[in-house]
Amino acid sequence: MQIQISENKRELKEHGNYSFPLMISQERLSLYDRNAFSWHWHPEIELTLILDGEISYQVNESSYLLKAGDGLFCSSNMLHMGRSISNHDCRYLSVTFHPRLLYGYKSSLLETKYVTSVLESPSLASLPLSPEVPWQSRLLTILRRMHELGQSHEDAWELEVVSLLYQFWLTLFRCADLGSPSPASRQNLERLQTILLFIQEHYAQKLTLGEIADCVSLSKSECCRFFRSKMNQPLFDYILQYRIEQSLPLLRDTDASITETALACGFSSPSYYTKVFRKYMGCSPRSYREAHPD
To answer: Which residue has the higher pLDDT, 179 or 205?
Structure first.
């Protein structure tokens, strides 16, 4: 499977509902194609606790190697993705909630004084949580208790979860470095988002480095350097990977031929598509289709 996203990479999955906008779930990387979940964002805040294994987790331009016992705070509306280390599985807890669960209603004192200051902090787009840091260890303990509640749904568990969220937020607000806004950091994030959106909109066509560089007003060499520094992979490796990801639903859910699938996802020929597919998926497109019947 893969995360379902809209045209601008927003995740389509609901995280809870309007009456209680929170979801506690246990996830495994092995459930995703290529042992990785794709780049996406959502307005909800996401808290992660690694239960078993390791994960390479990226939020915007920041990369983290998280192991069992570690955690991660990912702020609202941040691009993020995760992939396995050496194809080993990783089991992790995800607590995803809308900020309004903390502040109640727009322009409340809780929102303006305590929530917005964290969500707009450039240094808190994401924050790795280590059991070796005392105040972060307290946050991880809170996540473990949320894990228990998510599994048991014991009496009044929703109230306890909200109480734990307030404890989490108070500790984060008091102990984390909120920093000050950085225009350069915001510009870099906007550039990265523009490049990713351009690729998503045009992946089915022939893409040139010049076109991508022009969309963010950079030279070709600077565009390549910028993308690699933020994404930890070459630009055209990402494009190939994205095209392969977009081809998977066509193989699973349609009767399109391998040639039609290749051309629909921006590959110049079915032979090149098959070569790249083998590199990323470890099998041929035909074998993948046979292993994933409708």
So the answer is: 205
